[in-house]
């Protein structure tokens, strides 16, 4: 039997180790609210449940999943999507004219609104003869199941989806809305912990890593930012959340990410000095930067 504060400290350390996410003191209520239903299901108290997840990897995975924060919406913040349609996409269409293929990574996709928002824009603006792939990845298996299902409640649909796009791309199934099969076919799912190596993903023309770095400690953030560099194709774009920055990185890493302004949206690209090099040594050259 552990005390409530010992239980919180243990969960906090475990979450930091498994997912990189920080649950600081003061978040006890949140941790308990997220884990209590699992404890009840397992037939034990909150404190005993914490002891259980320390020993049982299957229960631990469920607890970590339950502790992810999955807040999202359609066309979140709007301006990045406008900048994609107006500037990034036309630029990429020129840059990739030889292959006529675009690859996009929604790297903390939550329930899929980010990936499907991009899919709607590609469906409308990608010229005939082009192909695309959107990879949606997340740590949470529950969220990946949701992307796969492509089903959303009315409350979720009300968050940022214009009525014209609802009519065009969704059909009603009972009390929910289901995304059109051709949009779902544009999205490939991947389980990817951002703190683990990025293997077998290929490289991308646009990476969205939005509203997730805020949950990590500085060293975890910097490690992810470093490992994202070789994941971008030359001339590709990297989007982080509006409250996130690369500027607090160590100088070599901050310089490796070149910041560009598109209207009021800041986008990142690999600085030309690094982009000219073969990709593999990029992250290695910044190790410990
Ligand atoms: C707040 S949501 C952001 C969703 C979307 N990118 C947006 O901006 O609307 C953060 C997502 O990051 C995921 N996440 C948290 N830690 C992660 C990790 N270590 N690896 C991969 N995904 C993680 C969570 O499961 C959650 O779905």
Description:
- The protein has 289 residues and is α/β, with parallel strands linked by helices.
- The chain folds into two domains: 4-67, Orthogonal Bundle (Chemotaxis Receptor Methyltransferase Cher, domain 1); 79-286, Vaccinia Virus protein VP39 (Rossmann fold, 3-Layer(aba) Sandwich), CATH 3.40.50.
- 46% of the residues lie in helices and 19% in strands.
- It is globular, with a radius of gyration of 20 Å.
- The protein starts with a helix and ends with a helix.
- Residues 19-21, 68-72, 76, 108, 110, 114, 138-140, 143, 192-195, 210-212, 215 line the site of S-adenosylmethionine (SAM).
- This is protein-glutamate O-methyltransferase.
- Residues 1-245 form the CheR-type methyltransferase domain.
- Its EC number is 2.1.1.80.
In short:
With 289 residues, the chain is an alpha/beta fold.
Short descriptors:
single chain, alpha/beta, Chemotaxis Receptor Methyltransferase Cher, domain 1, five-stranded parallel β-sheet, three-stranded antiparallel β-sheet, globular, binds S-adenosylmethionine
């Amino acid at each position: 039997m552990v005390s409530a504060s010992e239980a919180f400290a243990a969960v906090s350390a475990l979450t930091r180790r498994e997912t990189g996410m920080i649950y600081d003191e003061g978040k006890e209520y949140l941790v308990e609210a997220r884990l209590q239903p699992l404890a009840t299901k397992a037939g034990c108290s909150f404190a005993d449940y914490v002891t259980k997840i320390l020993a049982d990897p299957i229960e631990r995975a469920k607890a970590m999943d339950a502790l992810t924060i999955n807040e999202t919406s359609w066309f979140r913040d709007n301006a990045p999507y406008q900048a994609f349609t107006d500037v990034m996409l036309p630029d990429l269409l020129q840059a990739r004219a030889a292959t006529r293929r675009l690859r996009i990574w929604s790297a903390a996709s939550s329930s899929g609104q980010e990936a499907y928002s991009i899919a709607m824009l590609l469906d409308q603006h990608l010229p005939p003869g082009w192909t695309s792939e959107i990879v949606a990845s997340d740590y949470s298996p529950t969220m990946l199941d949701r992307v796969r299902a492509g089903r959303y409640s009315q409350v979720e649909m009300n968050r940022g989806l214009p009525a014209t796009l609802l009519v065009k791309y969704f059909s009603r199934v009972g009390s929910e809305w289901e995304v059109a099969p051709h949009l779902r076919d544009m999205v490939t799912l991947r389980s990817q912990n951002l703190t683990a190596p990025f293997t077998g993903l290929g490289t991308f023309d646009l990476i969205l890593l939005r509203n997730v770095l805020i949950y990590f400690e500085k060293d975890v953030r910097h490690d992810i930012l470093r490992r994202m560099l070789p994941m971008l194709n030359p001339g590709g774009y990297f989007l982080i959340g509006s409250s996130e920055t690369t500027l607090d990185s160590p100088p070599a890493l901050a310089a490796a990410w070149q910041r560009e302004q598109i209207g009021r949206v800041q986008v990142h690209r690999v600085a030309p000095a690094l982009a000219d090099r073969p990709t593999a040594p990029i992250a290695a050259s910044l190790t410990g930067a």
